[in-house]
Fold this sequence. Notes:
This protein has 127 residues and is an all-alpha fold. The protein has helices at 8-15, 25-42, 46-53, 57-87, 92-125. The chain is flat and about 55 Å long.
Amino acid sequence: MSLARRSLMEAAAARFGWRRAYGDTTQVDALLTEQTETAYTEAADHAARATEKNTDARHVQPCVLDVRGRVLADVLYLEGLLTGARNRGLPAGLIERLEDAVDHGHELTVLLADTVRTTAAVHTTGR
């Protein structure tokens, strides 16, 4: 939903970091689409900037470390949501999706850690 179509309450909630749950899949789909479009718009020049700045493996390393840290924090947050969902007996389908997200998130943190190690190894060996 564009900012022009948001209600005053939704705009205030977004400003203060409050979250709203949606019960309608159409609204959820619209929100997911907007979220994706915003991310791609904000990242439009990322490849050009990264190409300009990342001249060797050492320049890549801090960026990957930052991403890994953020992903790990988010995965641990998802683990908390999963624990809460299990403890409250929420629907099995939701728990399964959260389990999948947590598992894939942990896999991503391992891949990112391996990438960081590779940047150090490449720098050390020169390859």
